[in-house]
């Protein structure tokens, strides 16, 4: 199996390229099925086009408006072109089984074909039998291969952005269950790759851009302007792109475009209030229901649908089983719900600069604050074990610690268990306890005292915390007395933007 080098124009997708190229070049004499999914703008089509180009495969993009006959004609014409036949040379009528068989019937001595069916959910709208036909062809190809007749061969990649549809392909009793040898779920770029992709030097500005665009590479192209390089540049970026109707990155239009992608989200009046409630700080089912004036049971189905579509994330407490908390992981949707919708009257009046000024408190509390917590957990999960001596890769999440004597509870933004230990169990070994704040004030010794208190509370619950590090994440630095205390002690980490990005002066226990 030859290794296919990553093309120079494919950036920051080395691991994904390796998976795809291994799948595409592994000819086992039969038919192989792969599934690639991920939200819009992540570069799925770009990646698969490059793969097909490198391997001489056939890339087919389904069109939402195509009829069944038009879609079949498009596939047949692509097969004819790939085989050097003139247009119209192949005619199969209304028969997807014959079309699929044509795709993967290979003459002896010929290489196994690679076929990419991009936006596969569009085909399913008028041809729901396709997964069953692929199953039948797959089973036939396996049988033929075992009998020494290798006439049905190749690799097919089914790709789509409607996450609930794509993930359902391989679930339960569906035809392709157990038949796919690749299930690649494309993720956004991480914090550091995003900064490099945009080419932003200033760390604070890079964090601001990541808070509103996430690690979605397509937004860099849609911005149609130079990347912000200062907080002043970011203000102009927010006003001229995210808050300007008609711009490709106007957040309300982009959010509607994303939600329309999943056919299950066909009732905007149901889902928008849920998203707004979660972004506004309601995280449990009871709080969300109360915010929109409905019983908890009345929101369960809609929350499940949003979760399946990838627009809501159900977050479990890392230490104990409890009612889940919900977050909105998509940065653009979070910005739209917290900022754009609230300022729509000003935006519609053409007063976008005034809208941005008025939205700053909501941006800070509902967008930047939660995002900074997520970034702190991502750093702990991805890079802390390599950059802080004594830490090992383990489960990372959040928890809530009861404080009986004070009759209160403490929210812990970042908690890291020891390597090899399972979450939601008693008597865990804790590696790191952290707090992340994006507020304008630097962090001080009172923040460290709070973490000391939480560590003691966890120890009283039976968790092992003697060697746990205490980590304070701050967007705006630390007071000198805290820095002196951290230098004196050997268990304190102070992590600012430099540490999150792995720049000089990254965190180390002192």
Q: What's the average pLDDT? A: 91
For the sheet with most strands, the description reads: 5 strands, parallel
What structural class results from the helix and strand content?
alpha/beta
Helix content: 40-55%
Give the termini separation. Answer: 48 Å
Please compute the radius of gyration using only Cα atoms.
Answer: 26 Å
| Spatial strand arrangement across the major sheet | 2-3-4-1-5
Number of H- or I-type helical stretches:
22
Number of strands: 12
Strand content: 5-15%
Coarse shape: globular
Low-confidence stretches: none
Q: Would you mind describing this structure in some detail?
A:
By secondary structure, the chain is of the alpha/beta class. The longest helix has 31 residues, at 352-382. The chain has helices at residues 14-25, 44-55, 68-82, 96-104, 120-126, 130-146, 163-168, 191-198, 203-213, 218-222, 231-242, 251-260, 268-279, 285-292, 296-309, 331-340, 344-348, 352-382, 384-387, 445-460, 480-488, 497-500; strands at residues 31-37, 58-61, 114-118, 154-160, 180-185, 313-315, 325-327, 396-403, 408-417, 430-437, 469-474, 492-495. Helix content is 46%, strand content 14%. Helix 3 runs parallel beside helix 4, helix 13 crosses helix 14 (285-292) and helix 14 packs across helix 15 (296-309). Helix 21 links the parallel strand 11 and strand 12.
């Amino acid at each position: 199996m030859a290794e296919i080098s990553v093309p120079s124009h494919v950036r920051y997708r080395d691991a994904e390229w390796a998976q795809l190229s291994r799948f595409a070049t592994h000819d086992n004499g039969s038919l192989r099925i792969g599934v690639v999914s991920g939200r819009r703008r992540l570069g799925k089509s770009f990646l698969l086009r490059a793969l097909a180009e490198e391997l001489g495969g056939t890339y087919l993009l389904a069109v939402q408006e195509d009829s069944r006959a038009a879609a079949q004609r498009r596939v047949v014409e692509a097969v004819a072109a790939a085989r050097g036949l003139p247009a119209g040379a192949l005619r199969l009528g209304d028969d997807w089984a014959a079309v699929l068989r044509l795709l993967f019937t290979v003459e002896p001595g010929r290489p196994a074909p690679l076929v990419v069916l991009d936006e596969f959910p569009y085909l399913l709208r008028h041809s729901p039998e396709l997964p069953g036909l692929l199953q039948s062809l797959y089973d036939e190809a396996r049988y033929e291969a075992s009998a020494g007749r290798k006439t049905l061969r190749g690799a097919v990649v089914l790709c789509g952005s409607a996450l609930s549809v794509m993930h359902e392909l391989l679930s339960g009793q569906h035809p392709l269950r157990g038949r796919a040898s690749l299930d690649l779920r494309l993720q956004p770029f991480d914090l550091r790759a995003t900064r490099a992709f945009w080419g932003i030097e200033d760390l604070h500005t890079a964090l601001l851009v990541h808070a509103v665009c996430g690690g979605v590479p397509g937004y860099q192209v849609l911005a149609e302007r130079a990347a912000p390089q200062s907080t002043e540049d970011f203000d102009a970026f927010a006003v001229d792109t995210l808050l300007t109707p008609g711009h490709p990155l106007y957040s309300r239009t982009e959010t509607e475009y994303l939600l329309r992608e999943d056919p299950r989200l066909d009732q905007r009046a149901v889902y928008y209030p849920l998203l707004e409630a979660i972004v506004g700080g309601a995280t449990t089912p009871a709080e969300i229901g109360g915010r929109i004036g409905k019983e908890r049971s009345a929101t369960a189905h809609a929350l499940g649908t949003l979760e399946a579509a990838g627009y809501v994330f159900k977050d479990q407490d890392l230490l104990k089983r409890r009612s889940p908390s919900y977050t909105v992981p998509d940065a653009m949707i979070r910005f739209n719900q917290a900022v754009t919708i609230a300022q729509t009257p000003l935006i519609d009046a053409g007063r976008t600069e005034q809208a941005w000024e008025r939205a700053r408190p909501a941006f800070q509390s509902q967008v930047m604050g939660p995002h900074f917590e997520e970034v702190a957990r991502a750093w702990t999960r991805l890079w802390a074990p390599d950059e802080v001596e004594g830490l090992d890769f383990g489960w990372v999440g959040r928890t809530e610690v009861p404080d009986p004597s004070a009759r209160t509870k403490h929210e812990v933004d970042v908690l890291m268990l020891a390597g090899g230990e399972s979450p939601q169990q008693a008597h865990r070994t804790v590696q790191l306890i952290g707090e992340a704040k994006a507020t304008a004030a630097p962090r001080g010794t009172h923040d460290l005292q709070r973490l000391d208190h939480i560590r003691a509370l966890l120890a009283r619950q039976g968790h092992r915390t003697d060697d746990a590090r205490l980590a304070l994440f701050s967007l705006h630095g630390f007071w000198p007395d805290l820095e002196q205390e951290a230098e004196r002690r050997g268990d304190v980490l102070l992590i600012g933007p430099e540490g999150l990005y792995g720049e000089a002066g990254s965190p180390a226990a002192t």
